[in-house]
Design brief:
By secondary structure, the chain is α+β, with helices and mostly antiparallel strands. The protein has 2 domains: 4-140 and 361-472, no CATH class; 158-241, no CATH class. Helix content is 59%, strand content 13%. The chain contains 13 helices and 5 strands. The chain has helices spanning 4-35, 37-40, 47-83, 86-92, 97-139, 265-280, 282-289, 316-319, 325-388, 395-420, 425-428, 431-448, 456-472; strands at residues 158-165, 171-180, 186-198, 204-218, 227-241. The chain has a 5-stranded antiparallel sheet with strand order 1-2-3-4-5, with no helix packed on it. Helix 3 crosses helix 9 (325-388), helix 3 (47-83) crosses helix 10 (395-420) and helix 9 runs antiparallel to helix 10. The mean pLDDT is 78. This is Lipopolysaccharide export system permease protein.
Length: 473
């Protein structure tokens, strides 16, 4: 049965949590756009494409936004209660801090479950959609955008310059179209005015030029064999293909479906088992591809345990007749080069398999570690808020940023070590948890004993005592 005290703390938590969650998602999305802003500008992307990408990218960032939202909202909740002396009144009534934290602990467990389900079922699809769309946007050519007095050279083989555009962008004046038909001849068109418009099928940009001249060169480019032609016109129509500009065609999602980030935990488990089975077959392949070049490899297990018969040591050079010594050296060098090439190929394939295996293991553990991070950061935020006793977005925001940066850098460092193979993925992906759980236990211990760990007056008293002791001595 939920008591009034539990309802009080849950209501005080829900408001800051919802607000900080959406603010965090917005900040993370804007940070992502800041990194890729150059790839979005000038592509002529429609509003629908941009909103679709924001929708997918927001879903991808939810597991990272939830821990920060839990940390900041728990800090604000307990800080507000401490600042208004409600926390002191509750403690004076004989209710412990752990009992007061219990309803939010249950709520945080529920958030952890939501984060896990989101990471396992929603994030793979959102990652697939956003990464495919991002690749299409990055590799799309800039849109067809003509500016006054500037040569536009994004069309292959053409350079276009217009002197003036009317407000409706359709009536243009003083047009120059420079055309390079091949490596020798150069042609260009000059017109005093004209109309610029998009064709009905949106495939071509049409220039209807008026009162101009077309200059054309024909021949080999030398003065003896070249013809120079000048054609005057009252009206001339020129079309430019826009098929390669902007985001004209979307890539199929199936292109990235085998990426580790696009898989659920069940799919990751199946992939990990398959990769491990392939790794176990590498030893047999080494025997086939490497030892197959060596004839003596067939007799490795025949008499290597037998008792050695002492013989007079002679060098290999003494056993070879001088007539075939050069031939033997040549064949031995060829055999060594073949073995070296085979070893390098197998080693490269083995390293790729190991890298792929680590990537799948990292993604498997990420789905759980980011979910558990909500609970870990709550165990830091709740006692820390009851210690600092400050509400609002001042001190809680500063402390939240500090501890979230510790969480982010420790998790990023562990992931980097796991990717490089210098650390087991089971340790690397849980490094932030191993690092922050002792801090959370320590802060909870201090909060239960009304510690003044972050109180300015506490440190002022210590400073005065040290100063008095120094003066006495």
């Amino acid at each position: 049965m939920i008591k009034k005290l539990d309802k009080l703390i849950i209501k005080a938590f829900i408001g800051p949590f919802v607000a900080t969650f959406f603010i965090t998602v917005l900040v993370l999305v804007m940070q992502f756009f800041w990194l890729y802003i150059d790839d979005f500008v000038g592509k002529g992307l429609s509003t629908g494409i941009i909103l679709e990408f924001i929708w997918y990218q927001s879903a991808v960032l939810v597991p990272l936004a939830l821990p920060l939202a839990v940390l900041l909202s728990s800090l604000m909740t307990f800080g507000n209660l401490g600042e208004s002396y409600e926390l002191i009144a509750i403690k004076s009534a004989g209710i412990s801090l752990l009992r007061f934290m219990r309803p939010l602990f249950v709520v945080t467990l529920f958030i952890c479950g939501i984060a896990f389900l989101f990471s396992n079922y929603i994030i793979p699809v959102a990652n697939l959609k956003s990464r495919t769309l991002l690749a299409d946007i990055v590799y799309a050519k800039p849109s067809f955008d003509l500016k006054e007095g500037v040569f536009y050279d994004k069309l292959s083989g053409f350079a276009i310059k217009i002197g003036q555009k009317e407000k409706n962008d359709s009536i243009i004046k003083n047009i120059i179209i420079y055309e390079q038909s091949n490596g020798i001849q150069d042609n260009f068109i000059i017109a005093s005015d004209g109309v610029m418009r998009i064709s009905e099928n949106k495939r071509y940009m049409e220039f209807i030029l008026k009162n101009g001249w077309r200059y054309e060169e024909r021949g080999s480019g030398t003065s003896a064999t070249s013809d120079f032609i000048r054609l005057g016109f009252k009206e001339y129509k020129r079309q430019f293909d826009l098929g390669s500009f902007g985001l004209q065609q979307r890539t199929a999602d199936s292109v990235n479906k085998n990426n580790a980030r696009m898989l659920s935990m069940r799919q990751l488990g199946v992939a990990i088992d398959s990769i491990e089975k392939v790794n176990k077959l590498m030893a047999g392949r080494v025997k086939t591809d490497v030892f197959g070049f060596l004839p003596f490899s067939r007799f490795l297990d025949s008499n290597w345990k037998g008792k050695a018969t002492p013989v007079k040591a002679r060098s290999f050079e003494q056993l070879i007749p001088d007539s075939i010594k050069a031939l033997v050296h040549q064949k031995a060098g060829n055999r060594i080069n073949s073995l070296k090439g085979s070893n390098e190929i197998i080693l490269a394939q083995y390293e790729d398999l190991q890298r792929n295996l680590r990537q799948h293991q990292i993604e498997w553990h990420r789905k759980i570690s980011l979910s558990v991070a909500c609970l870990v950061l709550f165990l830091i935020g709740a006692p820390l808020g009851s210690i600092i006793r400050k509400g609002g977005l001042g001190s809680p925001l500063v402390f939240a940023i500090i501890f979230f940066m510790l969480f982010y850098f420790s998790s990023t460092t562990g992931e980097k070590f796991a990717k490089e193979g210098s650390m087991d993925p089971r340790i690397g992906m849980w490094m932030s948890t191993f690092f922050l759980v002792p801090i959370g236990i320590f802060l909870t211990y201090k909060a239960m004993r009304d510690s003044q760990l972050f109180s300015k007056e506490f440190y002022n008293r210590i400073s005065r005592k040290i100063k008095a002791l120094r003066e006495k001595n």
